[in-house]
Design a protein that fits this description.
The structure holds two protein chains of two kinds. Chain A is mainly alpha-helical. Helices cover about 65% and strands about 0% of the residues of chain A. By secondary structure, chain B is an alpha+beta fold.
Chain lengths: ~260, ~100
C-alpha cells in the first residue's frame, strides 16, 4: 500500500496539470482575440470565455501545486514551466486562424470539456469535484456559445460555410488526443475521474448533431495527432508561452 | 443605419439592433440596460448576457428588436405630456389618509 501512494499522487499531479494546461493555453489563445473580435459583442463574449478558462486553470493548477507538495503555486506552474513540461492537448495550442477556425476549435473542445467536467463533479477528491462543478456551469455556456456559432457559420454564407468546413477538416486530426488514455488515467480509475475513451460516444453524438444541423460534413477518422499529454507539442506552443511568460520571467515576483 | 454603410469591415451595420432588459431579482421589474447587435434572437440573448449580465446580479434577460419599440417623439414632448401637468385635481393628494392605512 505504501509504495502505491507516491505513484498515485504523482498521477493526480499529472492529471491536474492536464486539466489546468488545456484551459490555460486555450484561454490564452482566445484572449488574443481581445480587441480584434469581428464585432464588439463577440469580442466581449470571447474575452469572457477566455477569462473563465484562465480562472478554471488557476484552480486546477493551484490544486496541482498542493498535491505536488514542492511549494509551487499556480503562477509558478503557469509561468515557469517550458513547453516540454506542459500537458495540454495540441488542439488548444494551434494558432487561432480566422474566426471560424477559432469557433470550430472551441466547439470541439467545449463539447468534450462539458462532458468531462460533468463526470468529474463526482470525483472522490472533494476539492477536485468542487472545482469541476464550478467549471461545468461555465462550460455549459461555452458550448452553447460556440455551438450556436458553428450552426450559423456552417449554415450561413458560402464563404462562412467553406471556412467552417476547412477548419473542421484541419482540426479533426487533433481531436483523437482528447480520448487517448495512458498510465495516468489508469492510475486514476476508481477515483471518479471519467475514463477518457468513455467520453467519446457522447462527444461524437453532440458534435455530429451540431455538424449535421450546420450543414457541415463530419471528416472521416484517419491519422490522429498525439503527444501533447506527454509534453511533445507543436512548434506553436513555444511561441505562445514566450509571449505569456516573458513578463513573469523578466520580473519575477512582480505584482500589478 | 446610414452611418454604418461606410464600415464594411464591421458587420454591425448588417446586424439588427436589440434592446436589452435585465431583471436584478425575482419579482423586480425588467429594466432597460442598453442594446446589442446580433444576427438573430438567440445570439442577441447570448450577447446581452455577455455585455450586460456578466457583472452584478441578473436573474433574467429580455431582448426585443429595437424596431418593435414604438417611442414618443422628442419634438412632441410639450403637447404630449404637458396637459397632464396643470390639472392638480388629477392627483389624489387632497385626500386625507385614513388612520391605519400604510403610505407608500
Amino acid at each position: 500500500m505504501s509504495t502505491d501512494a507516491p505513484s498515485s499522487n504523482s498521477s493526480l499531479f499529472e492529471y491536474l496539470l492536464r486539466l489546468g494546461d488545456d484551459r490555460l493555453v486555450l484561454g490564452h489563445r482566445l484572449s488574443e482575440w481581445c480587441g480584434h473580435g469581428p464585432v464588439l459583442e463577440e469580442d466581449i463574449a470571447l474575452a469572457n470565455v477566455a477569462l473563465d478558462l484562465i480562472g478554471q486553470a488557476a484552480h486546477f493548477l493551484r490544486l496541482a501545486g498542493q498535491v505536488e507538495g514542492k511549494g509551487r503555486d499556480e503562477d509558478a506552474l503557469a509561468y515557469f514551466r517550458d513547453a516540454i513540461e506542459y500537458r495540454n492537448v495540441s488542439l488548444v495550442e494551434l494558432p487561432n486562424g480566422d474566426y471560424g477556425r477559432t469557433i470550430v476549435r472551441s466547439f470541439l473542445f467545449d463539447a468534450w470539456s462539458v462532458l468531462l467536467l460533468e463526470g468529474l463533479q463526482r470525483a472522490s477528491h472533494a476539492e477536485l469535484a468542487g472545482i469541476a462543478a464550478k467549471a461545468h456551469k461555465e462550460a455549459r455556456y461555452h458550448v452553447r456559445h460556440s455551438g450556436e456559432w458553428v450552426l450559423r457559420l456552417g449554415d450561413g454564407t458560402e464563404d462562412s460555410h467553406g471556412r467552417a468546413q476547412a477548419a473542421l477538416d484541419e482540426l479533426w486530426p487533433y481531436s483523437g488526443e482528447l480520448f487517448a488514455a495512458d498510465e495516468v488515467d489508469r492510475q486514476l480509475a476508481g477515483t471518479g475521474a471519467p475514463d477518457p475513451l468513455g467520453l467519446a460516444p457522447a462527444w461524437r453524438d453532440l458534435v455530429s448533431d451540431v455538424v449535421r444541423r450546420a450543414t457541415l460534413t463530419l471528416p472521416a477518422d484517419g491519422y490522429m495527432h498525439s503527444g501533447g499529454r506527454q509534453g511533445r507539442h507543436t512548434e506553436h506552443l513555444g511561441h505562445l508561452l514566450g509571449e505569456m511568460q516573458i513578463l513573469a520571467r523578466s520580473h519575477p515576483g512582480a505584482t500589478w | 443605419m446610414t452611418a454604418g454603410t461606410n464600415e464594411p469591415e464591421n458587420g454591425s451595420d448588417r446586424w439588427p439592433l436589440w434592446e436589452v432588459f435585465t431583471q436584478a431579482k425575482d419579482g423586480a421589474p425588467h429594466e432597460h440596460a442598453g442594446s446589442v447587435h446580433a444576427a438573430d434572437a438567440e445570439l442577441a440573448l447570448q450577447n446581452a448576457r455577455d455585455v450586460y449580465a456578466r457583472r452584478g446580479e441578473v436573474v433574467s434577460v429580455w431582448v426585443v428588436p429595437s424596431t418593435a419599440i414604438v417611442a414618443s417623439s422628442p419634438a412632441e414632448r410639450g403637447p404630449f405630456f404637458d396637459p397632464a401637468d396643470d390639472k392638480p385635481y388629477r392627483h389624489p393628494q387632497f385626500y386625507r389618509t385614513p388612520r391605519g392605512v400604510r403610505v407608500y
